[in-house]
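User: What would this chain look like folded?
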Amino acid sequence: MGFIPGPNDPFYELMQPPADETPAQATARLKREQDAQRVNDMIDEGIKQERAQAKKGRSLVKVLLLGQSESGKSTTLKNFRMRFSKDEWELERDGWRSVVQLNVVRSITTIIRVVEAEINGEHHMVDSDDEQSVVTVESAASDLKFSDRHQLLMIRLAPLQGVEAELKRRLGAGTEPVQATSMSATPFDAPQEYRPRRKRLPEFAVRSWKEVIESEQRAPQIGDGSASSDADLPTITIAGCKDDMKALWHDKAVQQALKRRKLLLPDSAGFFLNDLDRIATRDYVVTDNDIVRARLRTVGIQEHRLFFKHAGKATGWEWRIFDVGGCRTLRSAWLPYFEGVNVIIFLSPVSVFDQRLEEDSRVNRLEDSILLWTSICSSKLLARTQLILFLNKCDLLRRKLKRGVKVAQYLPSYGDRPNDVMTVVKYFREKFRDIQKQCSPEHRSVYIYPTTVTDTEATGITLESVRDGVLRENLAASQLI
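Assistant: Here's the prediction, encoded as structure tokens.
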């Protein structure tokens, strides 16, 4: 029976039927109320059963993946699922095909825009929706030789623009471009008005992986007997453009143009473009490494569940892992997820000491990461939350140092320490640990791991250590050990 207010209740008048209600209208209204009450009762019963199951069954561990944009949060979540949710991972494999293809096509179309700008003598470019490029060039293009061959390559690769549009439609149907209006340095700061300092195209993003992958799993593929012969035209077109894409990517003049314009393609671009013989085929099969490196920006909070048995029992631990957007324009959405959180895995890329934030080019990325880490460590709301720090992208740090980039040039406090990976990572480890010790409202330990989360084997070992440590701490908190 639903709630029926008494005559003295302020809602009494509001809940009375209309004075001119006909018998037919009254019957329809009562049916709607009964249906609504039935749904409400089902929801209440579901919540009751879930709470009862939680009490006698699994213990819940809430995990947040935090860090700035491009720090490796989504890749870490993929590693968690690949390691500890293998059945679901295998079921979703084919759904990632279009995501990988979009990564390839976006990289190629971005390179084509650079070549066109060089040939036309343009010194300014509008940034693309997922790459970072400097709008001014260092010098004139007098040393770059572009010929009719390059013009012919661009003509032959023109169909990829249609492929890009089709893949975006397929992956992001119904998703509006992200138009940020405010941003904040930390989730605890009041949002400030967001004014982009350089012109960018609207950013392509999707609501969640799950929606995209599930829709792609239902899409017909080549050779499945579907009546729609046009269902996988992107795959056919990409396969037909394979040789031309390889020629463009490996062309010396093109590489020089990319370098001179300081265009930063996503970290995964080289991995995919160097493996076009495998990827740009009609019978392309997605690998674990492809999925880990495939980039697909999301605008929502991603939630995934993992289940771990304890002492061989059917009931054990349930992990709910939340991946939140790391851009400054999205950090204000973090705060509601701090309630009841048991573990924060914070990712700080160690290779970005010489880079600036995409959303605010005035801010150094390392400084932003340190500011964010400080705010998390200082929060009284998170005083009893277990902290785990991934010093990520050690592989990119190694490449950068090998090219001769000096850390001390950007971090005077680094002093005359050796400019090698082990020393740099040790320096960052000490700095982040000191911040945690000085800022934490209560005494607690922090577990720090140097990582390259695109290395699935090494990351899998790290995640097993993380899992065991988290479970051990939660058992201790529950006074079970």
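The first strand starts at residue 59 and ends at 66. If you want, I can go into more detail on any region.
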